Amino acid sequence: MPKIKINTRRYFSYLAVIGLLIFLHFIGILRPIEGFLVGLTNPISEFFHKSGSGISSIYGQQVDKRDHNLIIAELQKENRELLAENARLVTVEEENEYLRNQIEFRKNNNYKYVLAEIISRNDLMNNSSEEKSIIINKGSNDNLGNGMVLIDSEGVVIGKIIETRENVSKACLSIDRQCKFASAIQNVDRTSGVVEGELGLTIKMDYIPQTEILEEDDIVVTSGLEENIPRGLVLGKVSEVIRDNNSLWQKAVIEPLVDFNDLTLISVVYLE
Amino acid sequence: MYLKIFLNILLIVFLALLQASFVSALPSPFANINILLVVLVYVLIVGSFEISFIYALSFGFLMDMFSFMSFGSHIFGFLFSIVVANFLLVNFFTNRSFYAFLALILSASVLNFFIVYIYSNAISFFTDADYIIFNQSFATFAIKQLGLNMALMLVLYYLTNFLNNRFRPVFLSTKK
Fold first, then answer.
1. What are the C-alpha distances in Å from B135 to residues A140, A232, B117?
2. Helix, strand, coil: what percent of chain A each, to 5?
3. What is the DSSP letter of B130?
4. Under an 8 A CB cutoff, do A18 and B76 touch?
5. Is residue A4 part of a domain?
């Protein structure tokens, strides 16, 4: 049996150093240094993330059917743009009708965008397939706050901010189970409810009354009932409706319209 | 001396950013690899405990800064892993063989998961920091990371052996 050597004094001094670091962080003395260092390294992080995303994108393309890759990508982009446009028009039409009925005009969609770059994805030690989050290079210094919605270049919802620091913010992606949005389906009944991510792959809307008529390809948009999130932003389209005759409720599986692996630049929407 | 310190700081920052931004953007399963822990164990074996300790503290601090998990989880995770790996290296795996490399990275990775899990969930009771849910998805991620860490360690082991013969077994011949 080998002789076991433990230098207790040395380990206690190490623990004291770590304890001091953590204590200084929690009382806020380290915050300015951390903020400065994160701000300083943001450009390098952006470069690294772009490189990683580039590799990820190439890898994804190789895995897919090679011959149809470009055509499918172009069609999907076009389709996303048309769906987003259509959803916006439906929302505008509804708004128009409402305004005409009420004979009053209000300024809606009065929101601004802040461009941000993704600098990291998921936590090192919590990178399971169900946890889908990103870290962006804008934070409370740029007037960002919790609950603000992230969209891509076509206006499709990517996720929402769940935590902000001075120069960075963490956002959950719409396919993360912790990410929930007040939303509405653009069907005959204008079904509304809360959608949440499922298994890091899709979005679901649960507890929809059986009396509501849902169909595949119905567009799901934000309902505007949440603070900081305007209505009419596209979340995805219904890909499957799960009905059980013995149940009071039905469930809609919603397919997101964004390729989350390709994202590098996003916009954060905030209402004025 | 100062140049050496400066180069080490650059290397630490480079590796931490590589892990936080580049590796995290890679496709699955490569995004699960923990290159920092592999580097720490490698430095521990080929270098010294002191250097490895400083690296662990720096990596932990930087990762805690970039991450939204409880502050200190990475510092504690890396340091405890290195302390235990050093204990095993000094007392049980003194020959620095192929199996020693694998055993050390395996034990360090398992301990790192254990410490981060316990610490994050304990701190999240008192703060609004993120916590880790242990479910099938997390277990799959952990197993993938263990496998990838071991694979990277194997690459480093063979690379070291290829570049020099420090870890090759030496047989003393009794024949004249």
1. 33, 35, 12
2. 35, 30, 35
3. B
4. yes
5. no
Cα–Cα distance, A160 to A154 (Å, whole number): 16
Alpha carbon distance A57, A77 (integer Å): 15
Whether the CB of A13 is below 8 Å from some CB of chain B: the reply is no
pTM greater than 0.90: no
CB contact residues (below 8 A), chain A span 143-202, against chain B: 163, 168, 170, 199-200
Residue-wise pLDDT for A76-100, tens only, equals 888 888 888 888 888 777 767 756 6
What would the two tokens of residue A211 be?
A: 């009396």
For A100-154, write each residue's pLDDT tens digit. 654 443 344 567 788 888 888 877 666 666 678 889 988 888 888 888 889 887 7
Whether the complex's predicted ipTM is more than 0.90 is answered with: no
A2 occurs within a structural domain: no
How many angstroms away from the CA of A75 is the closest CA of chain B? 23
Helix ranges (DSSP H) in chain A: 8-26, 31-63, 69-102
**Widest CA span in chain A:** 90
Nearest CB partner across the interface for A122, out of B24, B75, B140: B24
Measured distance CA(B158)–CA(B138) in Å, rounded: 30
Angle among Cα A269, A147, B26 to the nearest 5 degrees reads: 80
- Å from B175 to nearest chain A CA? 31
The answer as to whether A195 is a domain residue is: yes
Task: Answer yes or no: are the C-beta atoms of A238 and A216 closer than 8 Å.
Answer: yes
Q: Cβ of A265: how many Cβ atoms within 10 Å?
A: 13
Q: Residue A3: inside a domain, yes or no?
A: no
Q: How many domains does chain A have?
A: 1
Range of the domain at A112: 9-272
